[in-house]
Amino acid sequence: METLLVGLLKLPVIGPVVNALCAWQYRLVAAAMRRARRHEVRPREWSNRELAKIAGQFEGAVINVSGWRDEDQRGGHYRDYFSRASAYAVSNFKGTKGMEDQSGDAVFIDLEEDLPAELRGKYQVAYNHTTLEHVFEIHKAIENICALSHDTVILVTPFLQSVHFEEGAFGDYWRPTPMCLSRILETNGFATVYQSSNDNPWHYAYIFTVAVRDPKTSVCKTGPLSVPLVGSGHFSV
Questions:
Q1: Which of 27, 37, 30 is nearest to 198 (CA)?
Q2: 0.70 exceeded by the pTM?
């Protein structure tokens, strides 16, 4: 069957028609899979479910780094995931999708600059969702996120996603692998204790990473560490 299809695709007149039909069929199947398996396939819904598995165990202060309005894009807010947190803050940078809230729990942080001394180790959890791809100085950004926390860092990063940026506001630079994230975190004194991915053939692929300063004393309890082979599922079709 595959050989027949290859032959048809190579034909000068019929080939383009067959190609268009194949592309249409793929889009149809992909759309159906995104709806039928939305909690496994859609990256935001999947990463929200991953966070919900562990967020409720933290009782200290939490910061959503570069979290804009703290929205989970599914009608909720991330502060509600950390239901036992003693305090909750959201940091942002200037510009589009930057500082809006001027309340006491709004924090200005430029991830490419040195972190203010008063913020170092202030939070039990530093959480960051899909920001690192937009920061050119990614090593400095992760260093600052780690410096914010005295216990746990949670990162959600895209691995397979189309380029997305806003001219004059933010760019799009990185797609780090699981190993890359673990190594940078280790450089900053954090051990990766959990990684997962929603890798699939139908949608963007994210990586969910949890790292702690000391696995022996950390309050963070997760499943066993497994470095996902991201991309194996996406390119299997």
A1: 37
A2: yes
